[in-house]
Every structure is written in C-alpha cells, then in structure tokens.
Task: structure prediction
Amino acid sequence: MKGQCKLCSKTKKLIKAHMIPEWCFKHGSNPDENAIIATNDPMRRAETRSPGSVGIYDKNILCEACDGSFSEWEQHFKEEFFQKFLTFSSQEPPPLEHPIILSQGFSQEKLKLFFISLLWRASISKHSFYRRVNCGIKHETKLKEMLIKNNAGDPSEFSVWAKYYADKDKISYSKSVFIPLRCTIHKVNCYTFALLGFEFTIKSCSRPTPPTLKNAVLGETGIWPCIPKNFIGSEMQEIAIKVGQRIVTEEHARSNAKKLSGR
Ligand SMILES: [Zn+2]
Result:
C-alpha cells in the first residue's frame, strides 16, 4: 500500500514495520516458539498469531528504506545488550539482586538510537498495542530529527535506564513482550517497555532526570548498569494476570468451538 512515510515524508510503498523488533517476538530456545504477547488490550488483533507475520507491526508508517535504517541499532541492541545478558543470567548461581553492568563492547550511541527509534515508532503508531504511547507532536518531532541526523543526543534527553526482573519465577516474563506503559517518576513522564525479562524506561518530557536515577542512565557514565527489581508486585505482573485470565477464556472458547463443530 502506498502512503506517506512518517520518516522521509515521501509517498512510497509502505511496509509492515515493527516498533518492537520482530526478533523479540521470536525469542525462545525453540526457533518456532513465539513470545507471549502480554496485553490487556481487548482489541488485540489476530495478526499477532498468524503464521509468517510474527509480532506486532504497523503497515502505515514507514517505507522499506527508512525501516531498514533502524536495523543496525536493533542488531546492536540484540547482540551487545540482550545476548550478553542472557549469557550472564545463565551462570550458576544466577547473579540476582545485583546490578548487571554493561561495561564494554557496546556503543552508547547505537543503543540510545535504538531506544529513540523504539519510542518514536511506538508514539506515531496507531496500533492498539501502542495506544498508551503518545509523546506529543513536539517530542515526536525532536525524536524524528535525532533519527534523521543519527544524533543520540545528550544523556539527559530521552534518558534511558534498564532493569531486569530478579525474582525466581522466570518462566513467563522472560518469554513475554508486554504492552508499553506510561509512568511518572518524580513528576517526570516516561514510558516503560518490558521485553523478555527486562524493563526499559525512556524519559519523554523536558524535565530533568530524577537524581536518584542519574547514574543508571545510558551514556551518563562509561558503563550501563541494569538494576534488579521484582516482577511480583509490579504493574507488568498485574497485566500478566489479566492476560492469563483472558488466555484461559480464549482457550475455553476454542475448545468449546471444537466440541460444537464435532457434534
Ligand atoms: Zn521513508
């Protein structure tokens, strides 16, 4: 379908663009195993479950060239953040309750640009999964400028910090992609993306970063600490509980339908 690309503004063929990268939805020891999409969205689209189209995408935002311009940063996030932490957390005993520190091999600029692109794509997308993400025109324009100029900005602009779930029940959340949530920390507006056992929070307003979090901000020092927190008792757990209830309902609905059709 042709339309105006939101990044280059040209009228071109638009493609199925992912906001959260497609590989996050394919995570699992079995390559055919897809992530659990955790959302309390009653309008969740069937596309998230259809074969050959993994994850959640928007067909109305990006041309192929612009979508491809993010792949280097997505790849960097996958290799230098995610895969490194997987190795770390598979160690025995697992290093729980201490910050895991990313200290080498990564580019702060590339990681930051990945998070800038994530927030911008989520904010401009009309997909219901991202309905809570809306940075407003002023900040969307700023994010877009940073992407076009490959400019990761000052650490205080759209500051990013990371946490990981340290409680023992890793089964469900380490395979889940959660609906992004808006939160306010010391009057600072932020969005939190919980992906595969991690929480990434991105500041989305012009207020200064809360001083207690400053040392955890990407780019602020030479290292990037990832802070432990408990999944139990978190907002994400509440969502997981709601989703769990609905998954049961959907399964019941399917098996009921089967029974009925078998009669
Ligand atoms: Zn474009």
